[in-house]
Task: structure prediction
Amino acid sequence: MAESSAAGAALTSIPALLARNAQAFATRPAYREKEYGIWQSWSWAEAQDEIRALALGFLDLGVAKGDHVAIIGSNRPSLYWSMVAAQMCGAIPVPLYQDAVAEEMAYVLDHCGARFIVAEDQEQVDKVLEIQDRVQHIEHIVYHDKRGMRKYDHSRMNALADVQATGRAAHHRWEAELDARIAALGYDDTCVMLYTSGTTGRPKGVVLSNRNIIEASKSSSEFDELTERESVLAYLPMAWVGDFIFSIGQAMWSGFCVNCPESAETMYENLHEIGPTYFFAPPRYFEQRITLLVIRMEDAGRIKKWLFDHFMEHARKVGPDLMDGKPVGLFDRLRYALGNVLVYGPVRNRAGMSNVRIGYTAGEAIGPEIFEFWRSLGINLKQLYGQTEASVFITQQPDGEVRADTVGVPSPGVEVKIGESGEVFYRSPGTFVEYYKNPESTASTKDPEGWVATGDAGFFEEATGHLRIIDRAKDVGKMADGALFAPKYVENKLKFYPNVLEAVVFGSGRETCCAFINIDLTAVGNWAERNNISYGSYQELAGHAQVLDMIQSHVEEMNASLAGDAMLAGCQIHRFLVLHKELDADDGELTRTRKVRRRIIEEKYADLIAALYDGSAEVSTETEVTYEDGRKGSIRATLAIRDAAVMPAQATTLEAAE
Result:
């Protein structure tokens, strides 16, 4: 059979790995999806049958070698299958962010020249139809969810289930062609094209080969000893390289099960039901979970609150040492075991992390307190450092060497060096092929020897060999007096507070640092409720005097912490304001992965920045916003500007001795 020959061939493509899994792990679960409240499951053998039928249907539609097939939607087995089916046809899957507005989609679809679209539902189809007059090379739209689609013009549109049915019916006609295309797939053929978040301009199409994805998946799976018995929850955007590696690369290499939640709203509940063994989340996720836990504990009874505080204090003291296998006294172990029964176990269970064997966080720096909180509970949370251009992995933290202030050691097969300017460079088998249709950017990012400039500034610790990342290299600057300016470091320290959702710090070339702050509506709203503070909107709450007092206390506490760091003491916040709206990707202020677009913010809020530095006590402003339905509007506000106390830089131990 064709499957047997493919399984015996070299594992140099995702379809080849699928064929191997369909034999080696035939009856083991490969995909699960919760729909209408019921978990559905497909084994590896069943998944291969579904994917082959879809690939045959794609051939019947006319998908050619080298075509770009856009995939738009939330995490669904059928959309993952569509990516592998496209690869089987010799085509290149291009996943897009499902929350992207039509204009953002138009650029990506036009740039990659997509002829075929696989969309999740009516919402995504409508976005494509809205821009179809400008992106005229789109030939056919395939959709997963049939609801609301009955009255659409189906001359160039079809349901995914119907495409599969056609593939099965026409298998005699297309099977030989499909097997020939699968057999022709090489290690250096393109596996996927992923678009960068575009913090400073248009997104770039990162071309990743089978070699890039499979080598990165193989080495990272071996690093953490991942097996077919792992289980992951696929909830992160499919357009993000992390999801592609975890839900396709590593899943195909190791043969483990990918679970898709019913919806974004039920993600927490589904996480609790699945109880994954392997879990990834950005720092903001872990911060939000702590925020919800703190809110819940504030409303708990006196005894329950005392038990939580008592045992969490003990967990912070000995939990990380227990995780790292360091010596801990018998009495402390027994006390921790009791805490595990009364507090730690229930908290892990409520967070859906009872079975987590390996957890990772990346994308932004995570607060040491937050990082240690989860590890103190007995969750093996680690940090990694990566990029789309690296097929994710640049550095990882080995078990027993996990710390909050580093991102670990170079991943297996990865070389890392620090340039003269302090910028981090790497090269590895996972290093991307090129930026699509952008040779200039490719040449400026990757040199002829394969070294890639990350754009991040960092250094290796001499004692441990661990890498520490300071900030984005382009954002690291100097204050007017020559002191180091590292905005992201300061922003992340501010975001350690549950009441702070986002922060943007200014100060390069200036005498002082100032900041914009977004409050976290959930945390601050709960605080306001407990303190009998009434409010009618986010804007009203953000401008309340008591809220400003609370945020000021956080800023001043952070300033005191920075004063103890001789290198960054100059980055203390002198003045700040709380923004009247949340920074939003739809307004262009954040990327789809929630990274700050500094240049856009500086241009859009130039009047607010000017007021921070001219001594004004308040500033009136009008801001354009984008509503969920795409309509534009504006909001007016008068914002109070607060002065924060700054502390003199503390001398280091060495300086004091001198």
